């Protein structure tokens, strides 16, 4: 029997969790019937879904305008109308649905936590932790993609190991990758990043580091988001607009990455970013801030370039100055991505959850 899964996101704009779900849906045609609710009405990641998938998008209107009691009642009514076999909620923005489902017992509940916004980059907020403990109690299964989040869930949310699942992200590496375009040999490197342009990604830091370390280089920023216009102005104000390219929505990740020498990530908070896995799969060396599980994701050869925000400039400068290392580090990253973070393993984990 085809199982009906209801997925509730604060937004279905393009981002790591949304793209991961789209890839899973595309790979499991016929196994499930899906309903997706984007609480902000943004369904941009719909573009990542294949033709013919068994899926419905439901518009619930502006639920934030309702008072708490009316909002909870509206959620209850939606669950009763949609009647899913499993409710899957994603991150803090959808946790009220997790709570209502737990209180009403409407269906099996699975809550995914992929990380935090800028307000929790230093530490989780006590008031949110209290709410999470209440919402995530009962029989709700909680899924996290990183060991860092596993520790937080046990310590701050007091979740027992029996209801906590480690679900590492995975990628499918094409059998044939696009030919790598750049041949800069370090003098004028092309740096690339992929990100939803939000505050916690700290792209300002990346632009600053690029200006300081690669005066003859180029920076390609793939992705869109609320800070796009601000970041364009920032590059212009720093007289770097001719060398910083905002590529917008990226439909072909592998073709985009093939343009670069070095992949960069400057986030203040992450857990297990898919963009790092994609860079590894593309055979690229990575320079990144030491957040979440990134230091356990990359190959040993790359580990010295996963550093604190304060050391990012020095790490990037060292990588740029040693282009003879790029191929070796990139090849090691690619091997590890293929061996440890396969899409097939991720799909198997999803099947077990449902």
Automatic annotation (TrEMBL):
Entries under Gene3D superfamilies matching the protein: Glycogen Phosphorylase B (3.40.50.2000)
Gene Ontology biological process: carbohydrate derivative metabolic process
Superkingdom assignment: Bacteria
Gene Ontology MF terms in the entry: glycosyltransferase activity
One Pfam family named in its UniProt record: Glycos_transf_1
Domain Glycosyl transferase family stretches: 183-334
Protein name in the entry: Glycosyl transferase family 1 domain-containing protein
